[in-house]
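Archive transcription. Copying these from loose printouts into the bound notebook so they stop getting lost. Printout 1 of 2:
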Amino acid sequence: MYTDISTEEFRQQFASGQAGAYQLIDVREEEEHAEAHIPGTLNIPLSEFMARVDEISEDMPVLLVCNTGVRSSQAALFLASMGYDDIYNLEDGTKGWLQQGYAVESVDES
């Protein structure tokens, strides 16, 4: 199983903690991630998720994010089926993050 958390819960529970105490994984496609993403995310698109699952440590909490929480919940279910047990889904996704007015990063295509 996994736990759905809101942007506010994420910020209270994880973002204020030590860097490296959790893994924040954006499962959107590369183009979406490049456009705007939550700082500190690792981009593992859902389309590549099963092939790249070995990049995700089982030794620390995993927070999954997409645009609205749908794709990230699919990734969370997959991780749970693989034996991961400290999994969180950002239920309002990047869209909710932006609606709260929090900063995002983008990749310059210069």
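Printout 2 of 2:
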Amino acid sequence: MIRAAVLGSPISHSLSPTLHNRAYEILGISGKYEAIELSEVEFPQFFAEATALDASVDWRGFSLTMPLKEIVTNSLIGVDPLAKRISSANTILIDRNSQEVNVKILSTDVLGFRTIFDRITINQDSSVAIIGGGGTARAAVSALDGLVSNINVYQRSEKRNNLVRGAASLSAINFHGLNKLNDVLDHSLIVSTLPNTASEVLIAAIPPKVRESQVLLDVAYSPFPSTPAIAWQKAGGALIDGVELLIRQALEQIRLMTRTNFESDLMYEELRTHVMAVINNR
């Protein structure tokens, strides 16, 4: 039986258990995926116990949300080079046998973003903007790296500039303060990694009318739809919602944790239908 969980704080809003448990059902796999409230302070002891050779639970892996995405890349061994480069990881894989426990730490956020970007029209001259500088924003930067010549990053503080810069090796990074966010509407693709609680600044920057060709990818999904998503669609822009990114990045986690393969688009549609039914019944 597969045992896995999503770790972080706060965690009650997470839809990951809904996704993963439904995927186990579709694949015909016996498994249990749960949500565990875990702070940055509590994580080291939990991780040590979970990865001990004599652990009481045979964990297959963990999904990570804030505030754990960044700290694991700095404090643990087994970090994938890409996760190390963007200083963010959202997945821990555990391979255990009678003699040892092997741990791999990686980011499926990058693949989730890249899958989405491959489905929309982007070229070297595309004007793109990312709002935020945290782990999810850096995953978006990495996914866009090389697809476009320039990536514009709008963030509140300059403290993470070096981390953001490190996420790209091919595209140039241009930094802007959130006070310049009105300029974001000049871009054809806008990726907002702001939590819904901090979205007022984006909402204020959305005018009554935007071009139909402009795309907003808003990673927030709780509540759903997010407030910026509602304002953006009302203004006439194209929207990619946070549920799509949530599922796209989860597909690779499911594949890795179950050690099975499946057709991604079919699984996406199955999980999307299930998640939306859960959201609508809340």
